[in-house]
């Protein structure tokens, strides 16, 4: 059984920064991709960023240039550094991991494991 545990969410003013972390625990596994999605109230879960085992990274247009993603394969941990935060970034952020190989990891259905979510609130 694999568990993903997020940390690092909180309240920040617009223009500020937060760093989210997600640690995978349980059986030994090395997911092909780990990523972040977010869900604001009344909206569908949306793609934020993904990093593959080979460290290829992908970002939603809305966060490009502001967010960076990194991964520690040895620790099965993924990080999301969020800078220049905006009020529209407010959401619950979910960590996800995929055991499957795809050319793109930008849809929730491509992921096998999910964290419980961490709230990020950006005040304007």
- SSE pattern: EEEEEEEEEEE
Which parts are unreliable, with pLDDT below 50 for 5 consecutive residues or more? none
Number of H/I helices:
0
Return Rg in Å. 13 Å
Average pLDDT works out at: 94
Structural class computed from helices and strand pairing: mainly beta
Beta strand %: over 45%
State the total count of DSSP E strands: 11
Ends distance: 40 Å
What proportion of the residues is helical, as a percent range?
under 10%
Largest sheet: 7 strands, mixed
- Shape type: globular
Q: What would your notes on this structure say?
A:
The chain is an all-beta fold and 124 residues long. 0% of the residues lie in helices and 52% in strands. The strands form 2 sheets. Strands 2, 4, 5, 6, 9, 10 and 11 form a 7-stranded mixed beta sheet that branches. A hairpin with a 4-residue loop joins strand 5 and strand 6 (57-59). It is globular. The relative contact order is 0.32.
Task: Give a concise summary.
0% of the residues lie in helices and 52% in strands. It is built from no helices and eleven strands.
């Amino acid at each position: 059984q694999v568990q993903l545990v997020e940390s690092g969410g909180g309240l920040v003013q617009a223009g500020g920064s937060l760093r989210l972390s997600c640690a995978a625990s349980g059986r030994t596994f090395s997911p092909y991709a780990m990523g972040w999605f977010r869900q604001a109230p009344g909206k569908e879960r949306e793609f934020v960023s993904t990093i593959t085992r080979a460290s290829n990274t992908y970002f939603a247009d809305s966060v490009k240039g502001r967010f960076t993603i990194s991964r520690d394969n040895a620790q099965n941990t993924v990080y999301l550094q969020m800078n220049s935060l905006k009020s529209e970034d407010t959401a619950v952020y979910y960590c996800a991991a995929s055991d499957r190989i795809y050319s793109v990891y930008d849809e929730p259905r491509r992921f096998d494991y999910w964290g419980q979510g961490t709230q990020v609130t950006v005040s304007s």
